[in-house]
Each structure stands twice: as structure tokens, then as C-alpha cells.
Amino acid sequence: MSSKSQEVEAILAQKYRHGFVTDIESDSLPPGLDEDVVAAISRKKHEPQFLLDWRLKAYRHWLTMQEPTWAHVHYKPIDYQDISYYSAPRAPANAPKSLDEVDPKLLATYAKLGIPLHERARLAGVAVDAVFDSVSVATTFKEKLSKAGVIFCSFSDAVRNHPQLIERYLGSVVPQGDNFFAALNSAVFSDGSFVYVPPGVRCPMELSTYFRINAAKTGQFERTLIVAAEGASVSYLEGCTAPMRDENQLHAAVVELVALDDAQIKYSTVQNWYPGDENGLGGIYNFVTKRGECRGRNSKISWTQVETGSAITWKYPSCILKGDNSIGEFYSVAVANNYQQADTGTKMIHIGRNTKSTIVSKGISAGHAENTYRGLVKILPSAAGARNFTQCDSLLMGPKCAAHTFPYMEVKNPTATVEHEASTSKIGEDQLFYCLQRGISAEDAVNMIVSGFCKVVFKELPMEFAVEAQNLLSVSLEGAVG
Amino acid sequence: MILLKITNLSARVAGKDILKGVNLEVRAGEVHAIMGPNGSGKSTLAQVLAGREDYEVTGGSVTYEGRDLLALPAEERARAGLFLGFQYPVEIPGVNNVYLLKAALNAKRKAAGEPEVDAYDFLALIRQKMKLMHMSESFLTRGVNEGFSGGEKKRNEILQMLVLEPKLAILDETDSGLDIDALKVVSAGVNSLRHPSRAVVLVTHYQRLLDYIVPDQVHVLSGGRILKSGDKSLAHELERRGYDWLLETQVA
Predict the structure, then answer these.
(1) CATH code, residues B2-251
(2) Residue numbers in A near B79 (CB within 8 A)
(3) ipTM of this model?
């Protein structure tokens, strides 16, 4: 073993010391779920009593719930007793030791996405120099954030160091019993991120920058909580354009956002988990609950998502517009190729007066994929002067895919304005031929047409990610036409 | 030099025979007009030459600069200098006009082993050509044909042609839907491209266009064949007498 990798080992060991207890003989629990397992997870993480009680309450509620069947997705029943609910994030024994051992196809994809060399190893699961390199950079970022008073840490660290904030905000947007997958997550969540931006502070950097370098393997039940206090603002980017290796098939994350008076949260997601092969085998099931609450007046929450991965995506980032004049936004590009299934959309719940919401959804289907937009705009009687604009566009590539749109609207205040526009178009043979006739290759033409279609959403992404997202789209749709 | 030679070309669309043995020779430096009644196969001929896949060639041959044109995919025909001005230019929402045009020019340059065009030079070039086509600056920021009027779309086609400088331009009813001022602008654009090394094939219904772009030869296409060829006086005769007399001679 080289001295460098010994250093790496040392650093990894340190992480263990801080994050995980060593007095347990095994790093993972056997498959199965009962109250003992929930208690064991909490104990391993040295959680305070309130959190254990919270988890158990969620678990008991989960037992009374049925897995939802209303989404337009099909999969074999999941055996929840066949899953291991805790494993320490260590490098698995069969992980590649160097890039030479990584599937060349994966490396080619990284190259196409323009992923820097030093990041490729980490993404491919080769936990060597990449992690080592980024430690110092991450430290610099950490200093910058703490100077501004921003708390940004793993969920476990937050439980230990800021229990009062966790107790106050956890579950305040997505209650334990909200839905089947959220309840499961609440009982067994492994780790995730916590962000608190204090009053009047504008977070000095895109949290994406930090996150991309420092992202740890957070497991299949991720929990994220972001709180922007009065007048604070933050932009957070989750995920990565590169395909992530992951052994867990089921992912059920929960993300909660809280924006107090005059606060703004911008949450961007680029999701590119393994979608399964071209025959639909394998692939991640992504059942996510994401919700933000504009709790204070004049607050704003904006969701932007580019979803290209996963075999099944079940995801509805939503906004509860409680504060007067608060604003909710949802910008989405969902791509489904081969046998992928995506059922995604948003809910905008207008409670406060003069609340505004904007929904722009772009669905792209290719191969045998099914792509569904499901959205709810609900205007409560209290929401005088509320306004919503919804635009749902679908693009079909090839004859075997499908797009579905289910927009629901419940308007209970007569002063509200609700607008809805929808379109479905085929990637026109005409458009393609037009480009070919100008000498542009089929591949470039498809990229051009698709990115034109998605332009309004990409504009909402942090700059450097907009470019990557565009590349990602072209890789995801490779071979879909022509 | 013979730029384009069509020999006994037949083609079908959706199972229906449209071209039934077309013969045509176009030399460098020439302008040809192809006229004929609706449904005679004019647009089909243009699409087949440009390489549209859902048009099936069932017989005959086409050479372009001595090469087998039909063996080339559409994008290679374009890069080799064949340009089709579309009758109904398609809208591509969100894709910037200038971006598409730059990609097209670079594809052509790359095929010719030339370096990509410098962004500054390109902008200067496109501004100059836009002026010639009486197009406003706002065009630079708009999507490809997005929300363009019929006339704007046709001008845009000619602008693309001027930038790409094709050896063989096939203009499919570029004059339809143009008012007289726009027709003059478009014609001036086409005439500015005329050169001893280039050729233009105009597909049109109306003699009017030929007052501005004077052809060397006029052909009448009907029922999938060229019934008659002549000089520009043939266009005037058609204007006066319609197509029926030709069709009758054919039957007789």
C-alpha cells in the first residue's frame, strides 16, 4: 500500500471516529425492520431521546399505512423486511481500487459530461486521491460559511450540535405520517444535510460548490432540512450530473425547507442515478418527498429539478404558501428513456393572501419510457388575490414512449387567478430534417432541439450547472433518435 | 461543368408513386426554374434531392459534382454544398437562430477541413447579410423561425443560404406568401449569390418571381415527369395559357 493511500485510510478512519460509534461489533444491521431496528439506528447515532421517540412514532404510523398505488408507475412489490436499514458508510470490499478497474463505458460518460479528472475517481467509487484532494478545499469553504454564521453540516452532526434547531423544525413541513415513504424515512433515515442561515444573512456561496466536493455517501434514506431565518437567503444544489454508483435499489428521501419572513430558498436538483439497462433491468427506485413551507410573509421558495436518472421517479417538490405575498416556483425537466418511468410534478398550496406560484414542467420521453406530470394547485378560501401560472410541455421522441399530464386545481377563493397551458409535441421529423439539411449531425440536432425545449428551466439552474445539465441531457438521450 | 445530373429518377411517398422518371441537367452558373401544377411532384423532387428519408427512391440516379448523390445522407449533401430553401421552414422553439446558423456553418467548414468560424467574424458576416435581407437586429436573439411571419421565415431561409454559400441552392416556393417588396428583397438576395461556379434551382408556381431572378431554363413538371423545357419565354407562355395546353399535348 502506498503511503498516500495510507494517509487516505487515516482520514477515513478519522471520519469514523467523529461520525460513528465504534463500540458495536458490526457495521451494518441484518435485513429487517421492527422497533428494535429503529432503536438500534438511533442508538448507533447517539441520538437524544426526543429523536428516538420521533422515529418510533413514525415507525408505528408507517405500520398502519399502505404503499401508494395511484402513481403511473409499475414495479414488483418491495419486501421491506429484506432491506438492511443501517450500514456504516465505508468503502465496500469489491470497490474498484483505481480508475483502471472501472467500467470504461462509465469513464466515457464522465468524459462526455466534462467531469474533471480528479472527480471521476470519487464518482466511480474509487475513494482515493479524490477525497484526499478535496479535504483542504472543503475546509476553506467551511471557514467561509462559519464566518457568515451559516450552519451547514451532516444531519447527524446537527442532531449532536444543534438539537434545539432539529427539534424545532424537523417534521414541521413533512410530518412523520405524511405519506408511506416519508413515514418510512422518518423512522429509519440514515443521514443527510442540515442548513441554517441566520436572520439577515445571505449565504456567501452556492452550497452546491461545497456539496459537490464534500458529498458523502448518505445512504438510501436521506433526510435534508434547510431553514432560512428572517431575511436570509440560500441556494442549495443537490446531486450531481455524473451517474452515481449505488448498491441500494430503494431510495426514499425527505427534504424539508422552511422560509421565514422575507427569506428565500432556491433548491436545485440534478438527479442522475442508475436508470437500469436498456432492457429495463436494475435501476434505482426514487420515492422522494420534498416540500417547502413559505412560513413567513414575502418569502420565496424555488424548486428547480433536472431528473434524468432512476428506473422509477416518484417525486413532487411542493410549496406551502402560508405567509402573505409568498412565492412558490417549480421548474422541472424530467427525462425518461428506455424503460424508465417518471411520475413527477408539484403541489402549490396557497394559504396566505396574494400568494403567487409558477409551475413550468418539461417532460421528455424516449424509448419505451412513461413520463407523467402530476400537479395540484390548491387555493384555500384565505388566499385572496392568489395567482398561479402553470405550463406543462411534453416532448416525445420515437413512437413507443408516452407522456401523461394530470393537472389538478382546487380554487376556493373567487379572487384567485389560475392559468394553465399544456402542449405535447413530437421531436419533429421536420425539425430534425431541417437541421440535417443545414449540415448539422443528427446527434447535435437532437441536443439542440431538446435544450431549446428545456431552456426556460435551465435558465433557473446555477450557472455552471446549467451547462452540465445540458450535457447530461444529451448523454441521457444518446441514440434516442436516428 | 455539370453540377447536377438527374437521370430517370422515380420516387414514392407513403406508398404513392410521385416521381416517374425525371431527367434534368444543371450546369454551374445556371438558374433553372421548375414550374408545374399543384401535386406535380415539384416539392417531392426538392426533398428527394435534399435526402429526406421518408421519400423512397425507386429508380434512376442522381449525380452531384460527379458523385452519387443518393448514396449520401442528408447532412453530408448539405456539407457538400447542397442547400434546400424550405417551402414551410419549421420552428425550433428555444434554439437561437444565430446559434443554429453558426452550427451549420461550422459543420460545413469542418467537413471541408477548415477551422471553426471566429465568433466575432461570424457576427460581422451575419450582420452584413441581414442588412442585405432588410432584417432587424431583433432577429439575432430570436428562436429559429419562432413566431416569424411567413415572409420573415422566407427571408431567414435566404439569409441562411447567403451565409452558407451553397454550390447548388434549391429554393422550394420561396416566393409564396411574399408581398412585392419582400419578393424584391428575396430576389436580390438570390441574385447576389449567382456565380459561374454556383447554380440555383427555383421551384415556383408563378412567373412573377422569374421577373426578378431570370432563369436560363424553365421546366414544366407534371405527373412526375418533365413535360417541357425551354428558355424564360416558356414561363411567360405558361402565365398566359396555363398548364392545360401542355397536358393536352401530352395526352395526344
Answers:
(1) 3.40.50.300
(2) 439
(3) 0.95
